[in-house]
Each structure stands twice: as structure tokens, then as C-alpha cells.
Amino acid sequence: MSGRRVVVTAGATGLGRAMARAFRDRGDRVAICDLDAAAVAAFAEACPEALAHVADVRDEAQMGAFLGAVEAAWGGADVVCANAGTGGPAGRIETLEYGAWQDCVAVNLHGAFLTCRWAARVMRGQGSGLILLTSSTAGLFGYPLRAPYAGSKWAIVGLAKTLAMELGPDGVRVNALCPGAVEGARMQRVLAMEARASGLSEEELRARYARGVSLRSWVTEEDVVGTALWLASPAAARISGQVIAIDGNTETLVP
């Protein structure tokens, strides 16, 4: 299981960092990109053996430079985690600015496209590989006040399903991960944004997220990372085209 070549976008912060470090700790070679230059520098210091680049997943030239460097160093990749995402704006759709919509879709969907386009080429050529796309439970349910985020995360599910069909005959597996509300700084920012849009307190929103799932709890980064590691293991060799929720069984995302 170890010694594989693993690429993680948005891999210097949050869930991406947790994924990258878990693969590294398993003995895999890891390459990450992230928009946060300080976080990339910190990751490189902590994991000096890793390939760590500053890159904006929305930018074709920057992603080309990053992925080109990975290909030059490794000749390909065995696991690619198209993980980069942003929460986008919150509010009723008639209040949203088009630029904010475009930015959310560009990060969540266009970034995944650029990453998967490269992964598909190199993995098809080598006849093997795993692509993991990070969607969300917002890609499975309606999500009031978060139309750009929900729309882009539903699109990720469609992309994963389609790529699994396109690449399966060449030995490449593709799956979508749908985490629920993951504990951490990112969800704290989301709570603050949704509180402003809804008029509810952050504490009430936090409680509502928990009440909306059968297990009445939030998700940890470790929950999601464990699923990613399993999908990259021989135990999941026939798992492809699946949309896997790591969320405690979401019943509703209605505030």
C-alpha cells in the first residue's frame, strides 16, 4: 500500500493537509499545491521530502506548472485528490453578486477539471490510478442560502460519475467524497458567514447542523482521511463511480 505517488490540491491547509500528511505517514510520496504561500512554506518545512508548490487551481498556467513539475519528477501519479474548494457567498440567490458566484464555481469545479484532465491523461497512459474528488453533503441535498456552493458540489458528483465511466476501461477508478460539517477553521468561517445571512447565531447554526444528521454530530478530518486511505488501498480495488458520504447520515441541510 505504501510508496505510491499522491497529489493533493489545497494540500497545505485543512482537510487537504490532513490527507497529504496521512498519505506521507503511510510511506507514500506526496505533492501538494495551495494558494496560501505561507501554508505551503510551512508544509514544505514539515515535510521536506514532499513536492510543495504555490498554485491557484483556477489558473490553467499555474496548475500546468505544478502538475508538469509532478510529472517531470515522478512520471505520473497513483492517487490524485482534487480537493480544493471554497464555501462561496451566503444569501438568497437574488442578493448574490455574479462575481462571487463565478469565483465559487471556478475554485470548486474548474479547479477540479484542470486537475482531473491531467490525472486522466497520465493514469490512462499507465493503465491504473485513483482520482478522489471532494464534494460535500451539499452535493447531495438542497442547501438554502448556499446556491453557488451546492450547485458546484452537485457538479463534482456528476464529474466523478462521468470520469469513472470514461476511465474505468483503462483501469482508473474515480470516486467522490461527500463530507458533512467538518470541525475546523473553515467551518468556523462558514458559520460566521451563514449567521450574517440567516440572522441566526453561530451557536444555533452549529446545533442545527448536528440535529440534521442521524448521529447528531459533526465530522472530523480523521473521519474523511480514513475513508480516503481505504479507497486508495487494495481493499477498495473494485470501488469506483461511488459517491461516499462521510457525514453521520445527513437527513436535511435546511437551517
TrEMBL record:
Write the record's keywords in alphabetical order, separated by commas. Oxidoreductase
Concerning its family, UniProt says: Belongs to the short-chain dehydrogenases/reductases (SDR) family.
Q: Which organism is it from?
A: Rhodosalinus halophilus
In Swiss-Prot or TrEMBL terms, this protein is called: 3-oxoacyl-[acyl-carrier-protein] reductase
GO molecular function terms attached to this record: oxidoreductase activity, acting on the CH-OH group of donors, NAD or NADP as acceptor
Which residues span the membrane? none
Q: Report the InterPro entries cross-referenced here.
A: NAD(P)-bd_dom_sf, Sc_DH/Rdtase_CS, SDR_fam
Question: Which PANTHER family would you find in this protein's record?
Answer: 3-OXOACYL-[ACYL-CARRIER-PROTEIN] REDUCTASE, SHORT-CHAIN DEHYDROGENASES/REDUCTASES FAMILY MEMBER
What Pfam families has UniProt attached to this entry? adh_short_C2
